[in-house]
Each structure stands twice: as structure tokens, then as C-alpha cells.
Amino acid sequence: MTLTYEEKLFLLLLLLNFLVAVIYLLAGIFIVVPVTARKKKDEEEMLRDNRRAYLLRFFVMILCPVIGPLFFLVSYLLYLTIFRFQVNLEDVTFSKDRVRTQQKADEDRERNVIPVEEAIAVNDKKSLRMAMMNIIRGEMDDSLASIALALDAEDSESAHYAASVLSSKLNEFRMNVQKLYGQFKEETEEQTDCEEMLLDYMNSVLRQNIFTELEQNRFVKIMDEVAEAFYKKNASRITEQQYESLCLRLLEIQDFENSEKWCQRLSAQYPEQLSSYTCKLKLYFTTKDRTAFFQTLDALKKSDVVINRETLEMVRIFG
Q: In this structure, are residues 170 and 210 in contact, taking their beta carbons and an 8 Å threshold?
């Protein structure tokens, strides 16, 4: 039986494909795998896994003539030319401090949570205790005012727990202020680190108005003293937020003279910021200085400062 040219060519391709597959299998099992395994710690496991991989590729080449060998050849060339280069990670840093773990919300718990104020108003012991636990489980420094509300609750357990937590946090605040204030007194004329830390730290607690009137006044006076020293040392380092917080804390204790002084300094250093207007508006409204109030309001309306919703409402009422 005579074979046609096409049949001879087909058989030749099959033979060549078989030879390539056999050479690939033998070279991989007896040359490549042992050399690679010597560089690894677990030599026995490496030999077994890699030999199995070469055997599987051998069967692919036999079952898929021409296409199989070409696929592995192209894959190897791509590996050599593109994927083999190591990525330069010199400028990449991995810090655990910047990792945020996304936790699934506890919908059942959140659905049953009501504010502390409402729980006290309706005398709901279960809801009040749940609200207290949620506050304490989170960051408490910004929730001290809510904890203080629970002191007046009829539920003795919630009131006792709130008193314990609040007493601990306030004592911690007093000790930290005393420590930083002592360091502030020992600073040189060029150092301002303690002033910056004191202003931000004290404001975060004092703005919640949880101290007695006498103690609140004393701490605000310390803020004023620290800020004055900061201003004389390096006024350019005082931020807009620090100016604003000092103006408002002084206004709350009705120290109108010093509050106005810091309002003027805020306006001089940050004239194009909304807080330079709102602080003065709150001051003049409290002191019932109609002339200064409406002059500031007119200046705000004529300025290019972006107005927030609260200030816009004030402009609509008085403008």
C-alpha cells in the first residue's frame, strides 16, 4: 500500500513530535529536575513534584501534536523575556500601621442601638447598657460627654460604670496635662513641641465640657498661657484649628477679652479662612455687639470664602 505525500508528511510530524516529547521528558527528569532540586532544601519532594510535571507535559505533547510543544516553547520564551525580571521594590514599604482591617458590620447589634440621651429619656436600662458598652468598646476620648450623661441615669449599674470610666479618663487627662505642662516650662525659646501637643490634646477633651466650671476655667487658662508662649516663639506654626479651638474655649468660659484677642490674631494670620469670620461672629453674638457682628457678617458676604451650611443659615437669618 502506497502512502500519499500528505500522509507521509503527517506521519513525519507525528514522529518528530514524539521524538521532541521524549527528549523533553528525559532531559527534564534526568537533568533539569536534579539540578534544580540541589538548590532547594526539600530535595525529595522537589524531585517528585517536578518529575510529575514533566510527565504530564509529555502526555500533553503526545495528545496535542505540534500545538503542545509550541505552547510550552512559547510559554518558556515569554518567561525568559518578560516575567523573569525581578521587580524593584526599593521604594515600596510595607507598614502595619497603615493597614486597615475592614470588618463586617454587626447589623443585629447596630439595629438595636439607640443614643445614650434617648435611653436615659425613656429609662430603657437594656438600651442604655448596650449604648455604654458600644462606646467603651470603641475610642472613648471623643465620647466622654456621652458617658457623662449616663451619670444621671436611674439605672445604678450604668451610672456606676460611667462614673468609673469617666473618673479614670479624667485622671489620665489631668496627669498628662501636668506632665506636658512641666515639660513646657522647661523648654527653650526655640522649642514648641509641648505647646503643639498641649493645645491639641487639651482641646480634644475640654470641648466636651465634662469638667466642673472651676476646673474647666483652670484648664482653659492653661491653654491660653501655652498658646501665648507658642505665639511669641513662633506664631507661624499655630494652625487655623488651634486658633479656632482656643477662641471657642475662651468664649465658653466667658473670657471675652482674650477670646477677641485670639480672634483678631486668627483673622490676621488666616484671613481667607471661614473660621476667622465664624469665631468673631460667635463672639460678637454672645457679647451682643450688634455693630461688630453685622460688620463681620457683611465682610463675610463680600469675601470669596466658601461658606458651610451652618454659616449659610446664619447669613440667611441675619443677612
A: yes
Cell 523533553 sits on residue: 24
Is the confidence at residue 46, as pLDDT, over 60? no
Which residue's entry shows cell 476620648? 141
Calpha distance 223→216 (Å, rounded): 11
Cα 312–317–319 angle (5° rounding)? 80
* Residue 254 CB contacts under 8 Å (≥ 6 apart), including other chains: 286
Cα–Cα distance, 153 to 117 (Å, whole number):
10
pTM for the whole structure: 0.56
Total Cβ atoms within 10 A of residue 269:
16
Residues 285, 294: Cα–Cα separation, whole Å:
10
Q: What is the pLDDT of residues 243-269, one digit of tens each?
A: 999 999 999 999 999 999 999 999 999
pLDDT at 218 over 70: yes
Q: Are 149 and 116 in contact (CB under 8 A)?
A: yes
Q: How far apart are the first and last CA of the chain?
A: 109
Q: Angle between the 256-269 and 275-286 helix axes, to the nearest 10 degrees?
A: 160
